[in-house]
Automatic annotation (TrEMBL):
One of its GO terms (biological process) is amino acid metabolic process. Keywords: Hydrolase. This is asparaginase. It catalyses: L-asparagine + H2O = L-aspartate + NH4(+). Its EC number is 3.5.1.1. Gene3D superfamilies: 3.40.50.40, L-asparaginase, N-terminal domain. Residues 6-187 form the L-asparaginase N-terminal domain. The active site is at T13, T85. The keyword Nuclease does not apply. It holds the Pfam family Asparaginase. Substrate binds at S54, T85, D86. One of its GO terms (molecular function) is asparaginase activity. PROSITE patterns: ASN_GLN_ASE_1, ASN_GLN_ASE_2, ASN_GLN_ASE_3.
């Protein structure tokens, strides 16, 4: 029997062309799908969902993509999403949670240079996405880019122009596509479903801070009345200052108000060991929730997902520190 896949187009560089104000998406979905080269046992359909520069991608768009996949789930063996690169990792993470437990592959891809332009990487990325989805038995959400497949919650865009724009951070690449063949590099371990909400929902009322020397403590007064959850990108292994501009009372104040404060690190690789230093242990004592080796992109999406499910801070902490879609705990 032929395999059937749905290509969902959302815009991005891959579907862009030059305008007076720079590159902007304008390629029709039917035109984009013509660049695929499916084999005789593969059928492709296309859904023209949106045409956005991914800078404009919002959580409401994540929900629309997830809903579209759920609605078409019985008709297709898998889904390929063409997407802009700037927020692709956020979308991949969000879909990993919204579609957690989905028993079919969902692959996001895009390009650094638009289709139809000289030296474009779009055609190879499209073909690699199709090759990966058709030749592996992996389920879940993945990004395929520059010949590599990576778990959706572990992908991070690390380069603005080069073809190898994405890296799998703190987790192995799952496959490599080369010369029309797939070499599976890693088999993700099965996980136990931590929750089942039954609905697609996100609480977008979160705030993210990047710590820097001299950061004011006054920001916490604002957050206490305006945010349902806070993420802080700390220094190193999870430390935040407690001398002079002491941030710890602000964290404690939020925690006491039932507002979760997730502590991640500004360092891209190797995660955090928040108990290693006094500056980290004090953050935990103030109520900070360590995020281990999770990427910031995954933390943003996961916190929105968890807050839509519960407002109990103990349950929030438990879910945030439980591996979902292979988002933490590898290193």
């Amino acid at each position: 029997m032929n395999k059937k896949y749905l290509v969902i187009t959302t815009g991005g560089t891959i579907a862009s062309a030059a305008t007076e104000k720079g590159l902007a998406p304008n390629m029709a979905a039917d035109e984009l799908i013509a660049f695929f080269q499916p084999g005789p046992e593969v059928e492709l359909a296309v859904l023209d969902l949106m045409a956005k520069d991914s800078t404009n991608m919002q959580p409401e768009d994540w929900l629309l993509i997830a809903q579209s996949i759920q609605e078409q789930a019985e008709k297709y063996d898998g889904f390929i999403i063409t997407h802009g690169t700037d927020t692709m990792a956020y979308t991949a993470s969000a879909l990993s949670y919204l579609l957690y437990g989905f028993n079919k592959p969902v692959v996001l891809t895009g390009s650094q240079i638009p289709l139809g332009m000289q030296y474009t990487d779009a055609e190879s990325n499209l073909q690699d996405a199709l090759l990966f989805i058709n030749d592996t038995k992996l389920k879940g959400v993945f990004i395929v880019f520059n010949g590599l497949a990576m778990v959706g919650t572990r992908a991070v865009k690390t380069k603005t122009q080069s073809y190898d724009a994405f890296e799998s951070i703190n987790y192995p690449y799952v496959a490599r596509m080369m010369h029309g063949k797939v070499n599976q590099l890693y088999q993700p371990e099965p996980e136990t479903l931590p929750l089942q909400t039954g609905t697609l929902a996100l609480d977008t009322n979160i705030f993210m801070l990047k710590a820097f020397p001299g950061m004011t403590v006054d920001i916490f007064d604002y957050l206490k009345t305006h945010a349902h959850g806070v993420i802080i990108e700390s220094f190193g292994n999870g430390g935040l200052p407690f001398e002079r501009r002491n941030l710890l009372p602000g964290i404690q104040s939020l925690t006491d108000a039932g507002i979760p404060v997730v502590i991640t690190t500004q360092i891209l690789e190797e995660g955090q060991d928040i108990s290693l230093y006094e500056v980290g242990q004090r953050v935990v004592e103030a109520g900070g929730i360590t995020a281990g080796d999770m990427n910031t992109e995954a933390i943003v999406a996961k916190l929105m997902w968890v807050l839509a499910y519960t407002d109990d801070i103990d349950e929030i902490t438990k879910l945030l520190q439980t591996s979902v879609a292979h988002d933490m705990g590898f290193v």
